[in-house]
Amino acid sequence: MSSLCASLHTLFPDVTSLRDNSTYTQQNTETWSTTTILIPECIFTPTTPQQLAEGFLKIVHAKAKFAVRSGGHMPNPGANSVDEGVLINMKGFDGIEYDENTKVAKVGVGLRWERVYEFLKPYGVVVAGGTNGAPGVGGVTLGGGISFYYGQVGYTADTVVNFQVVLASGKIINANSGQHSDLFWALKGGSNNFGIVTRIDFQTLPTNKIWSGTQVFTGDAYHAAVDAMNTFINKDDTDPKATIQFVMFYDGPGEYGGTPEALKPFTQLDATVNTLAHTTIHAVGLSSAKALPNGLRRLFNTLTIHKSTALLTELITQYHASTASLCGVAGFTGQIVAMVFTHSFLEKSANGPAGIGASEGELICIIHLSTWTSEDDDEKVYEWTKQTTEGMRETARKREGLNGFVFLNDAGPGQDVFEGYQSEKRERLRSVSRKYDEERVFQELQNGGFKIGM
Predict the structure, then answer these.
(1) What are the start-end ranges of the H helices in 69-170?
(2) In a 3-state reduction of DSSP, which class is residue 451?
(3) Which of 40, 58, 80, 120 gives the lowest tally of CB atoms within 10 Å of its CB?
(4) Half-sphere CA count of 19, side-chain side, radius 13 A
């Protein structure tokens, strides 16, 4: 391995960092969760597809372990780094262009969403990207991606018109509806199983003022807020411009500049904290990133249920009760979020790899995020997370409300994402993987991630 890194450093001295280099230390720790920091032999940070292709061929020929990092936001251990192997850091792919005629934004995968929103703001358009400004463009999109606009467009990946990809063979290709259309389809939720994506071209959406912010309810107002949430979830004609995730969001200034009708059940309540206001998607992305800074230990888990506010309430109560066992974990905080997969979203996202379709009715995706400070508590939190998620799944199963879908972007270690995909789509993904990665490089040499298998 040392000879491989020496060779990469000789060929690309400006973009290859060895362990004794200060750039190595800085880049190695640029992750959202400290649970993902490993010790690669070297870090390769190419800036062009050609540079990446040449360096990647050396890694493949050496049969060396490697990892690919876009923004480093996936908190699963091993998700975006590797011990002893080569970490391919994509931060050098940081270009962005906007074509005002086609309304297409060409975005390097090394960019974070807040930079994309900032760049596009003067044009009055937005990419339906991450709800948090800190994650990288690549990871969110290849996992499918849920934006604030998901009720209008489906997944983030559903707005992609082209992927630029470096294959295991070193070939650089474009995958779109006219070229390599099978790969184009697979990359929209099939994750990093097929090649290394360097640039993604998105169809943009017009945007101006939006409504967004957070409300906190306590005491009697809390129960009224639960009723309001149940009403919001149970509406069959939910406004596709309104979403409630970690924050409330409405795409538009509201009726006559006032509060959007969809959010009035909440804004009419007495909130302890209320930051809802007219703002921009760039400001929301920045705020979300600041609320969840780098430097702590984190873990996601997720499950999906059929739409039932009674079951959702039971599962939230079960989750909060289970956190009592973590009272001795330093700095522990737990968040649980429910996101409705509306008819509009399910229909617009139906054709992609992660598409579920609307035949079984609306669904609720439940995401829980754990944060803590000490490595000494890792195993306790991991085991608690696994048991808590399985306990919630078992409750949902008993109530005949469990759906097998596992949302990739928020899935945790050991969660079988692709088993939750429709069987014919899962087999189609495997077929595309075998076609474009004949030597199984991304299944066998790539560290971490969710593998599609044979």
Answers:
(1) 113-120, 137-142, 150-153
(2) coil
(3) 58
(4) 11
